[in-house]
Amino acid sequence: MIKKVLIAFLTISSLSSAQAQATQDDPGADLIVVNAKIFTGNRAQPEASGLAVKKGRIYSVGSDAEILSLKNSKTQVIDAHNRRIIPGIVDAHTHVLNDMAYNYNVRWDGVPTLRRALTMLSEQAARTPEGQWVKVIGGWSPFQFKENRFPTLDELRKAVPNRPMIVQYAYNRAFLNKRAMEALGVGTDRFQKLPDIEIEKDGRGNPTGVIHGYTWLFLALETMVPQPTFDEQVSSMIYSVHGLNRFGVTSIVDNGGRWPYPEAQARVDVLARDNRLNVRMPFVDLQLGNGGPVNMVDLEVEAITKKAPVSPGQNLHPALPHGHEYRGAGEVLSGEVHDHENFDRPAVIIDPEKMRRFVEQDVMKLVQRRIPFRMHISYNENISPFLDALEKMSESIPLDGLRWSLEHAETISPENIARVKKLGGGIALDAKMALHGDAFIKTYSREKALETPRLRTLVDSGIPLAMTTDAFRAATFNPWVGISWMVSGKSVSGTEVLAKDNRLSRTEALQLFTRRAAWFMNADSEIGVIAPGNLADLAVLDRDYFDVPEDQIKSVTSVLTIMNGKVVFGAQDYRALSPQLPAILPAWSPVKFFGSYFGEK
C-alpha cells in the first residue's frame, strides 16, 4: 500500500514538474515584428527583416520566415510595412528630473516660424489662469525660425498682455514682460543678486525686460515662479517621457538638476509602481543645497551614505533592467569650477589653481569611495588643468577602471582626447552647436566653429563617446536635430557649422545615440544593438533614415517605439497599440493643446 501511494505521489510530482517546466519554457515569442528593414547595429548580422522578443529581450533576428516560425497562439505579430527599424535611441545626457514643471511650458521645439511661436504664446495666455505664468523655458533657438531672429519685447508683450511671462533662451537670456518684472522685483533690491548678470536698460536707466546670465541665474528664476504640485510633477514626467518615446528614445541618463536624490525619486517611484516608466532612466545626482556656497561632493556623499543609502549601480526600479540605477555624481561637482556653455559670450576660464584644489580635495573623495562621476567642462582651457590634476591624483589614488566622463567638452583638443582615453574616461558631447552654432560663429569665428567639436578625431580615437541632447532647457530633446547636424554639417538655420572632413556618416552618427552611448549606462553589452540576448528596445521610423535627403533627417520620428519588449509609443498605423496616457495636469497645460514638439498636434 505504501509503495502504491509513493508511486502515485511521484507520478503527480513529475506531472506537476513537467507542467511547470512547459509553462516556464513555453516555446514561441511574445512579440514578432516582420516585413522590416532592420538596421541591427550588429556587425555580424547588419541587416534583417524580422525579429522576435521574449520576456523583454531579443529572442531571434533573421528573415520573416525564420521569425514567423517562432509564432504561437499568444504571439503578438506586428507588420512593419517595409519601414526602417533601428535600435532604441540612448540619450546619455539629458535632464528629465530637472523639468518637473514640463507641463507648465509652451514648447517652441521645432516651431518653424517666429510668427507661429508668438501665436502659440497668445493662445496660451488666453487659457492660463490668474496666478500662473506663461512660460517658454528652453529647447528652441532663434536660428530655427524662418525670420532668423529673436522676438522683440513689443511682440512678446502684445502676445501676453495679462499674465506674467518669461521666455528663456537656453541658459543665456530671458525675456520678461512688465508683470513678470514686477513679480520678480527686477530693478529693485528684491531681485536676487547673482554674479555675471546683465540687466538691459533703456535710455532712462530702467530695465527693459531682457536679462543675460549663466546657469545659476536661470535656476534661481525657476524657483521664483509658481511651482507644480506633486501630482503635476508626476504628470510632467509622464508627458516628457512620452515626448522622448515619440522620437524613438528608449533609454536616457538623467544628468541631475534642482531636484536632488532622494527627493526626485519619489516622483519616479509613482511611475514605476504604475508601470508607466516608459524609458530606462539611470541617473547621476547633483546636490545644489539650499542656497549659498556648498560643497556638492560632501552633500552627495551624505545623501547616498546616510540620508538614503544607495550604491553605484543599484537599481531602484529592479523590475525594469537599468530602470533607475544610481550612476554616481555630476554633472556639476562644484559651483566654483563650473564653466557653463553660453555661446553668446566668451568662454568662462577657471583659475587652474582652483581646478587643482577641486580635484585634490573633492574628486579624490569620489574616487576613494568608488563613486563614478561626470564632470561638466565645456572648454579646452579648463579641460587641461582638470586632467593635469586628475593624472597627478591617479598616481597615488588610481582610477582603476572607475567610469567617469567629461560632459560637453565642445573645444577639447586631440591631445586631451588621448589623455581622457588613457585615464579610462569617456566623453559625452552634445548637439547644442546644431541650435546655437550661429551664435558660436559670431563669438568665436566660422573657422573655430567648423572644428567644434572635433567629431572625426573623437570617433576615430575609439574613446567611449556619445552624442546627447542636454535637454530640456539648454537644447531640444529631439535627437534627430543633432543627428542631422552631424551628417549634414548644418545648423537649424542652414548655416554650415561643421567642416566636411569633420562630419560623420549616417551609421556613425546613429551609433553615437545607440551602441556607443550605452557605455554611459554601463549597459554596452545589452543595449544599442538589435541582437539575440539584448534588451528589446527599438524604434520603427516614419521614413528611412538611411535613404531620405539630408534636409529631412531632422524631421524623422518614430511611429512605433518598443522598450523592454512592450509598446510605449504608437502613431499612424500603430496608434491603437500606444498605451493610453492619463489626463494631463494641469488641465490648462500648453502641452495638452500644442503637444511636446511642433507637429505633434
TrEMBL record:
**Domain annotation Amidohydrolase: ranges:** 76-569
Cleavable signal peptide: 1-20
**Keyword list, A-Z:** Signal
Note the Pfam families from the entry.
Amidohydro_3 (PF07969)
Question: Which InterPro entries does the protein's record reference?
Answer: Amidohydro_3, Metal-dep_hydrolase_composite, Metal_Hydrolase
- Gene Ontology MF annotations: hydrolase activity, acting on carbon-nitrogen (but not peptide) bonds
Signal is among the record's keywords: yes
UniProt-listed SUPFAM superfamilies: Composite domain of metallo-dependent hydrolases, Metallo-dependent hydrolases
User: Could you identify this protein by its name?
Assistant: Amidohydrolase 3 domain-containing protein
